[in-house]
Amino acid sequence: MANYDEAFKKMIVNEDSSLSGIVKTDNDGGQVRFGLNSNAHPMLVAANFYTATRQEALLRAQFYYREWYWEPMKGDLMVDQGVANKVFDQCVPMGISQASKLVQRAINKAGHTQPQLKEDGVLGPLSIKALNASDPKEFLGDFRDVCTAFYQDVVTAHPEYAHLQDGWEKRLDKGLEWV
Predict the structure, then answer these.
(1) How far is the CA of 128 from the CAs of 102, 142, 153, 177, in angstroms?
(2) Are residues 155 and 100 in the same domain?
(3) Counting C-beta atoms within 10 Å of the first and last residue's C-beta, which end of the chain has fewer, N or C?
(4) Parallel, antiparallel, or unpaired for β 36-37 and 24-25?
(5) Do 84 and 167 lie in a common domain?
(6) E-only strand ranges, 26-149
(7) Res. 177 pLDDT band, cuts 50 70 90
(8) pLDDT per residue as tens digits for the range 50-81
(9) Cα–Cα distance for residue pair 32/29, rounded to 1 Å
(10) For the purposes of burial, counting CB atoms within 10 Å of the CB of 42, is it exposed (0-12), middle (13-18) or buried (19 or more)?
(11) Number of neighbouring beta carbons within 10 Å of residue 60
């Protein structure tokens, strides 16, 4: 089964490449540290996450990412570490539900499950079983395709996000070397 600590090490450098823990102001005006935005997670302000020491904040970030992303995506049930790393890494910028829908869409694209999975954004037992039965490299190729299409749709619907597309796609490609 996939290991959270390994997935976290791969993902966190996409949020803070030097692991500096420096608090910055995000595009939406919120504070961001190790990728955790105060507007998305307002409880972190009251928890003093943004004023904690770098080491304490990093340990807490590791805990939060596990609770808020890894566990809901059922990373511990995924058999291939590279696949779990990639799905986790995409859950962070696009959210659990959207990334899960794209996992289901990639599995359906391969045509290995009949009937096809419902693209409901919940990685339940059928989705996890189908994911674990998939060829990891084939899945990751299909997942990249559906994620790229999703990001293009976001930019088409919201041209103000066009400046983010290159970064999203570089992050997506970076994960392919994990398998």
Answers:
(1) 13, 16, 26, 22
(2) yes
(3) N
(4) unpaired
(5) yes
(6) 31-33, 36-37
(7) low
(8) 999 999 999 999 999 999 999 999 999 999 99
(9) 9
(10) exposed
(11) 18
Q: Do 109 and 162 sit in the same domain of this protein?
A: yes
Q: What is this structure's pTM? A: 0.93
| Gap between the terminal Cα atoms of the chain | 14
Question: Which residues are CB-neighbours of 131 under 8 A, at least 6 positions away?
Answer: 78, 83, 103, 107, 123, 139
* pLDDT given for residue 74 in this prediction: 97
Token pair in block for residue 24: 């910055």
**Same structural domain for residues 91 and 167?**
yes
Torsions phi, psi for 36 (to 5 deg): -95, 115
Residue 46 scores a pLDDT above 90: yes
pLDDT at 114 over 80: no
Give the pair of three-digit tokens for residue 159.
């041209």
User: Helix, strand, or coil here: 41?
Assistant: coil
- As given in the structure block, the two tokens for residue 154 are 């976001």
Joined tokens for residue 126: 């059928």
The radius of gyration computed from the CA coordinates of the chain, to the nearest angstrom, equals: 16
Per this entry, what is the length of the chain? 179
